[in-house]
Design brief:
There is one protein chain. The protein contains ten helices and 14 strands. It is of the alpha/beta class. The chain has two domains: 4-154 and 291-339, Rossmann fold, CATH 3.40.50.2300; 156-289, Response regulator (Rossmann fold, 3-Layer(aba) Sandwich). A hairpin with a 5-residue loop joins β11 and β12 (326-328).
């Protein structure tokens, strides 16, 4: 590990792990959804990554602050392996938009397509065509049902547990809350919300109630408007949990300039640079996230290793992802970056991303 922030990140994850005692200690989800391509062939750990690999990154949308950070990490990894990185995508988080750019990457002869899917199924016909044209397909952030491997930022159960526990702690164990999510079909958002719903059925959360879920489509203005609508529909709401960086920033901005500032708990997933001002002005007490730069970096290295044949994604395979060190596929087709980190006023200024 050469990045000093990596050491800070790993050391601080102990706080997040303590939030997840009900998770049985596991940090890996089940294997990919039925219909995924999954591991094929035999790995050669000694295979060399060829120079000049064309690696395309397709985020949910361009001009999204979170994916700007993720893909900067991906570009760093591609540069380290001597490849050529290209970012493709539209400004709307839709499957139709992604299909267009998947086709463009395939026609350009992409060796690796790294995608955060806006829909788990709608992008698959184009991704399968790209595979037939020679590309390997890596999911990151939000998986599709047809990727070769998925680079998961964390464990779904642990993320759900962290989101619930941040709300529970700040509400002193009781109250109502709503979820401000991204798109209705985002696989990662839906998985985290499902985990939250399951966790809320446990006796210790009997006094915590999820009353509504709305979608801002990972658009700042739409998210702001949905937040405004939530408070009109639920004027006595105690908290809002937004498991998307765009939504959390929009929710915090709305609350910071409203009568609810200091009264309504706002928490979720966000970056320190986005949320710092809202932590310091008292709008947000806690939020969480993994390191987005490292997520992109791991995805880039995973794609290069997969294309080179160093890995197939089979359970038990290990590989080295540059400065991040060694990773293991604990289940077929999925490698995990690590548990989320909880940020608050005590540590938010220690990170710059």
């Amino acid at each position: 590990m050469t990045d000093p922030r990596r050491h800070l990140f790993l050391a601080a994850t102990a706080a997040a792990v303590l939030l997840a005692t009900a998770c049985g200690g596991t940090t890996i989800d089940d294997a990919q959804d039925e219909g995924a391509q999954g591991p094929t062939g035999t790995a050669d750990p000694d295979a060399e990554i060829p120079e000049g690999l064309a690696i395309d990154f397709l985020p949910k949308q361009l001009n999204n602050p979170f994916f700007d950070l993720v893909n900067a990490g991906g570009e760093e990894a591609v540069e380290a392996v001597g490849g050529v990185a290209t970012e493709r995508g539209g400004t709307e988080a839709t499957a139709d938009s992604q299909v267009e750019y998947i086709n463009a990457a395939s026609q350009a002869g992409s060796d690796v397509i790294v995608i955060a899917a806006n829909d788990p199924d709608a992008v698959c016909p184009s991704l399968n065509e790209a595979r037939d044209n020679g590309a390997v397909i890596v999911g990151y952030d939000s998986n599709a049902n047809c990727t070769d491997v998925f680079v998961n930022q964390s464990n779904n159960q642990l993320i759900g547990q962290t989101l619930v526990d941040m709300a529970e702690e700040q509400l002193d164990g009781e109250g109502t809350f709503a979820v401000l999510s991204a798109t209705p079909n985002a696989t990662n958002q839906n998985a985290w919300i499902e985990e939250m719903e399951q966790i809320l059925q446990e006796d210790e959360y009997a006094d915590l109630e999820l009353v509504d879920t709305v979608y801002g489509n990972d658009d700042d203005l739409e998210s702001f408007q949905e937040m405004q609508g939530l408070m009109q529909s639920h004027p006595d709401l105690d908290a809002v949990v937004s498991p998307t960086t765009v939504g959390l920033a929009a929710a915090a901005r709305y609350v910071s300039d409203s009568e609810y500032q200091g009264e309504l708990v706002v928490t979720g997933l966000g970056t320190p640079n986005q949320m710092r001002e809202f932590v310091h002005d008292g709008t947000v007490g806690q939020f969480a996230l993994w390191n987005p730069h490292e997520l992109g970096y791991l995805a880039g290295y995973t794609g290069a290793a997969l294309k080179a044949g160093q890995i197939t994604g089979a359970q038990g395979e290990t590989f080295t992802a540059g400065d991040l060190g060694e990773f293991t596929f604990e289940t077929d087709g999925e490698v995990v970056l690590g548990p989320p980190l909880v940020f608050d006023a005590d540590n938010v200024d220690d990170f710059d991303f």
